[in-house]
Amino acid sequence: xxxxxxxxxxxxxxxxxxxxxxxxxxxxxxxxxxxxxxxxxxxxxxxxxxxxxxxxxxxxxxxxxxxxxxxxxxxxxxxxxxxxxxxxxxxxxxxxxxxxxxxxxxxxxxxxxxxxxxxxxxxxxxxxxxxxxxxxxxxxxxxxxxxxxxxxxxxxxxxxxxxxxxxxxxxxxxxxxxxxxxxxxxxxxxxxxxxxxxxxxxxxxxxxxxxxxxxxxxxxxxxxxxxxxxxxxxxxxxxxxxxxxxxxxxxxxxxxxxxxxxxxxxxxxxxxxxxxxxxxxxxxxxxxxxxxxxxxxxxxxxxxxxxxxxxxxxxxxxxxxxxxxxxxxxxxxxxxxxxxxxxxxxxxxxxxxxxxxxxxxx
Amino acid sequence: xxxxxxxxxxxxxxxxxxxxxxxxxxxxxxxxxxxxxxxxxxxxxxxxxxxxxxxxxxxxxxxxxxxxxxxxxxxxxxxxxxxxxxxxxxxxxxxxxxxxxxxxxxxxxxxxxxxxxxxxxxxxxxxxxxxxxxxxxxxxxxxxxxxxxxxxxxxxxxxxxxxxxxxxxxxxxxxxxxxxxxxxxxxxxxxxxxxxxxxxxxxxxxxxxxxxxxxxxxxxxxxxxxxxxxxxxxxxxxxxxxxxxxxxxxxxxxxxxxxxxxxxxxxxxxxxxxxxxxxxxxxxxxxxxxxxxxxxxxxxxxxxxxxxxxxxxxxxxxxxxxxxxxxxxxxxxxxxxxxxxxxxxxxxxxxxxxxxxxxxxx
Amino acid sequence: xxxxxxxxxxxxxxxxxxxxxxxxxxxxxxxxxxxxxxxxxxxxxxxxxxxxxxxxxxxxxxxxxxxxxxxxxxxxxxxxxxxxxxxxxxxxxxxxxxxxxxxxxxxxxxxxxxxxxxxxxxxxxxxxxxxxxxxxxxxxxxxxxxxxxxxxxxxxxxxxxxxxxxxxxxxxxxxxxxxxxxxxxxxxxxxxxxxxxxxxxxxxxxxxxxxxxxxxxxxxxxxxxxxxxxxxxxxxxxxxxxxxxxxxxxxxxxxxxxxxxxxxxxxxxxxxxxxxxxxxxxxxxxxxxxxxxxxxxxxxxxxxxxxxxxxxxxxxxxxxxxxxxxxxxxxxxxxxxxxxxxxxxxxxxxxxxxxxxxxxxx
Amino acid sequence: xxxxxxxxxxxxxxxxxxxxxxxxxxxxxxxxxxxxxxxxxxxxxxxxxxxxxxxxxxxxxxxxxxxxxxxxxxxxxxxxxxxxxxxxxxxxxxxxxxxxxxxxxxxxxxxxxxxxxxxxxxxxxxxxxxxxxxxxxxxxxxxxxxxxxxxxxxxxxxxxxxxxxxxxxxxxxxxxxxxxxxxxxxxxxxxxxxxxxxxxxxxxxxxxxxxxxxxxxxxxxxxxxxxxxxxxxxxxxxxxxxxxxxxxxxxxxxxxxxxxxxxxxxxxxxxxxxxxxxxxxxxxxxxxxxxxxxxxxxxxxxxxxxxxxxxxxxxxxxxxxxxxxxxxxxxxxxxxxxxxxxxxxxxxxxxxxxxxxxxxxx
Lengths: 362, 362, 362, 362
Prior knowledge:
Four copies of one chain form a homotetramer. Chain A contains eight helices and 18 strands. In chain A, the strands form six sheets. In chain A, strands 1-2-3-7-4 form a five-stranded antiparallel sheet, covered by helices on one side. The first copy, chain A, has a five-stranded antiparallel sheet with strand order 9-8-10-16-11. The first copy, chain A, has a two-stranded antiparallel sheet with strand order 5-6. Chain A starts with a strand and ends in a 6-residue tail after the last helix. The model of chain A has no long low-confidence stretch (mean pLDDT about 95). Chain A is α+β, with helices and mostly antiparallel strands. Chain A has one domain: Chorismate synthase, AroC fold. At the A-C interface, helix 8 of A face helix 8 of C. Strand 11 of chain A pairs antiparallel with strand 11 of chain B.
């Protein structure tokens, strides 16, 4: 299926960094689901680069919805969002065609597309495409919120500097969603910005860890094999550029715990089954247990840096030294945060529609 | 699709811990692919519990192949493997029906299946089902080996004790595949066994980290969106019971690195493009670059322990104290190692058949 | 996906004519759905050859369900049905390996499987596999009946002899489902049997047309693109061996009508929207309108005949004359009737579970 | 998957009759496949209404390709085609919202979308959407032609008037593809036009039968279960609006033949296996045998007519009399011919890419 993700709610992505449009088709949104263009704009704004900690390529992201919506409601047929690429500068990228940027997709694109790939600005591999993912995810996320399901993501770590732990998850989700830089601890936020600026000044880049929490998911969603909710979330997350790992609940740390420490004790509270701890991140046996879903992802430092690097020309098959020029992000983890929210919304919308039918998200 | 994974090579799993058979249907194996029953048996033997570090439930796993194979060759139509459940003891599990074992799927199964689930020994959620996955994976893995693609997995960590780093990957894969306990450093292996036995003696359990390496994968396999090879691998891995995280290349550690450290310099070597380091684990932009694929997974400590735990009866909605009895694994990470090999083989077989056509694995 | 059909309720088929088992995995049946082994047996009996109008190979079809069912209820996890092949005579078929039987799949199997196909008795292409389809369909059909949805199929035509038109559809479905030879007009039934026997005596075979009616389907099921209910029904039907066409409502005859004749006038009746005629067969724009679903399929005469035929040896690439021996059906249309019922039940179960969620069929 | 068809080459459709754009995303086209905008334009022109035998709504169909193509080559990533809707007249259709047009999708859309559907001009159900399908199919069809695979469709029948039989298929495909009205016999063409004009003058409509032939398909393409090539072709065809039946080879007529008449004798000719007759339409056991693929479809008379008809208001649940006004097609069979070509190209492109890998169509 490649560029389409999902079964009952399916999203198809298209476009290249320097093409006319990027966009997304969202198929299966419940008829009558609320479509709020301002909500989509707000999420796109959270992804947009701003200030010195991001690339100087700024897009207005003035999307338009060309199908599937009448007024402010989904019709139930495919919703198509188009986002024009305005700030296109092809010239900077001409050198990239045959000289691979290390740890970019330049060489693997060549292996797969045999020279026919659009290599302008990363083409279809560009982080630019995540704007379309965000637009699609915004539509799903609002539908989830209307069912009482809320998603929030903070920078758990950036450039080695950690945010505080999640505490009151409901409040923390609300707090990060209102922040431009999604860090709960303002002191940590300041240090992260400084570290990003420092890396930028050195022509270098930094990475980080994103932590997402979801509240309000009904129990009983997900499959034992193979479509565990963890599998589905991991599938969509690991297609986000620069994302190199994912862990649920305590994740890798749980592998150092004993069963007696890791198991989440269960209790009845207010007539519901809850767990005292949430080391399993709200999912047991692949299926939601009603506790918050918690996961973290590893975002690598942006591969575009302005330092000289050893590389190859894959046409001439010769060794080269490359010193990229142009625009770049000294970090993308702060921008990726809303991409993660969006991707999470898509996968949850799909899982819920599969479980409860195509009208559930209305 | 639920219990089916894959597109061009698709595996369907079925069965319960205490049913008559568990099994798998492998659809799309290339006609003429070699089927070696001894190879399958060997992989099943690697998964089988042995000695004091595993459960006392031992199954012979005397599988039979009832379709899709003539002599020693795949016909190209669905291959069905049946594995009888022999060592069935239903009585030990009767208490589990309504009193949830913490961090097991008992409660989530109730939420999803409303009391109709087979709760004997974990039913369809049981690790027992991984025997069918291993059988299916064995068939795929041999086909990969016949194309020069080799997979190996070692216990990177168990009970907090670390194995040595991968060094000569070709030799290390060969070494671990011949070992019963897949640890490269024999001293570490001994300590891990001791730690497992200690946990067992305390009625407790331990977890660990598995690291998988793949050599010989052709360049250019995987998709930019959404079916990156990382997405597909993560999808199948995170459906393995007890697996709570996955990371590729340097994984979470890469998020602390600078771009200038994380980027893999590229060189021409023996007429091929290689990278000097492999921090990206053989995948860029979702597509293989010809370097070894490297990933690690987090395996939680077995949730079944013999210590008293707070839990609930989800029928009566009352708080309970539970002290499980029966058979259990004080660790499953050493048994899961071959499950990870198998799952990896399935996803790679599928990706290759999609890329190069249905006859590729012949 | 090949041997798997469906999304929310998915059926995987496996097996060969002369292998140990044929079988089916039904994934996604609602937890708590009634499983009645006698109901399955009855449908298998309707498919079984009987008397002189069918092959002399008779199988007891003593199926067993080895997963996914406890007592008389679906657990919600994959249901696996195994049917042993008992009456296996491999010798009769040895000549078929390289000399193609005209209008069989012998030559196309060679093109696809390059000599590795199981050619004993048609292998995976054999009509024998439809027994597994019938078992899977029986489980779906009973679930549909418990929701008030009934399916029936009659021989609209056999050997050129026509049954009467459907009249009172509720009564007609009931009537044909109780008949061994599914013909509404007993006089026509007698003539059909005579025609089949005559063809058999000449070593020849005959075909026919099957007409299926479904009552009780809710309105609003199906998709405008591409998964119209007609598309989904046609997809599964045209995978039944020997089926060469399908038409809905008036089908090909509607192409000779004027719009003013073909359009179905609409009325309110008993508080529901109905149509006076049903030329569109209960589906408009790919979606059910609440009227009976009506479709007909063309079944070709069995290609196995005992007359000399011109053919080729595809190994030696020489012309040959073939005069098949062994067992054969002088017609299969009367046996295919229950296969059509079963396939119809599978596709409707899937469409309903997609539409209304995975618990709908409970 | 709904609005997406295909696995290795997948097409997603979107848009409504009176929205801003309709369009298609073609995912999986081989990198380097030739993209000829004039070829696409020509196919769109064949679909466009012309003269008195079609609607007076004429669209220029000035499509643009906004992703996936550089110069005249596919990049290998999703190709997006946008076609603006220019000739929009919403007013004529306002009455349709609650008063159902008989045998249209108005009522079933209400059942599925609960009042949120776009009912302007048929919305997403409109034949207008087939323009996007044609554009997608044009891209696939040119890729097929570059591999020596040619598709052609003629009006086998219209308003009860028959075209001549296919004779020299290679020449006939060439001939019809150059004709505006795809009828081989010019005398029959004239009569068909007259019959359409007569129906138009009466405010009525007529239907017909389309016959498609494909030459050059490799042997061995298709699956035995469930994705026979017949299943896949039927699936996509039966999602075309107004199409109510499909038959392969001799189709329904084969059900009246004896096996000795229906079986296609096989011979070696010029070193290849051929059949003397082609009653099976080039497919045995779901797999191509190298002979031309032949199928026919039943197209119903356009449901929009200008005669008074009994219908209902599904909001007020009252009986109504309707006499539609506006633009309409007195027949669509002559326009549907290129839609059928396009749909056929999509399904064959997908089947070939699954079989031979993603680079095959380059």
